[in-house]
Amino acid sequence: MDKGKGVMGSNARRWAVDFSDNSTSPSSRDVPDPPAFSRASIDQDDSTLSRQKKDAESNWKAQKAWEVAQAPFKN
C-alpha cells in the first residue's frame, strides 16, 4: 500500500453534499407568524438595542483610550 493513499484510493469520494434546494416544501418565509407575534415590536426593539450597543461600545472605547493614554504615567 502506498503511503498517503486511503483504502478507497485517491479518486474516490467519501462524502458528497448537494446544497441545491429542489424541495417542494414551503420555505420558512411562507410559514405564518404565531398568534400574538408582532414583527413591528421586534424591529423597534432591535433599533433601540442597536443604539444602546453603539452607545455602550463608544463609552467602552473612550474608557480604554483613556486607560491607554494614562498607562505611561501609572508606571
TrEMBL record:
Residues 1-75 are annotated as: Disordered. One of its GO terms (cellular component) is endoplasmic reticulum membrane. InterPro entries: TMEM85/Emc4. The keyword Endoplasmic reticulum applies. Keywords: Endoplasmic reticulum, Membrane, Transmembrane, Transmembrane helix. The keyword Endoplasmic reticulum applies. It is found in: Endoplasmic reticulum membrane. It is a multi-pass membrane protein. Belongs to the EMC4 family. PANTHER family: ER MEMBRANE PROTEIN COMPLEX SUBUNIT 4 (PTHR19315). This is ER membrane protein complex subunit 4.
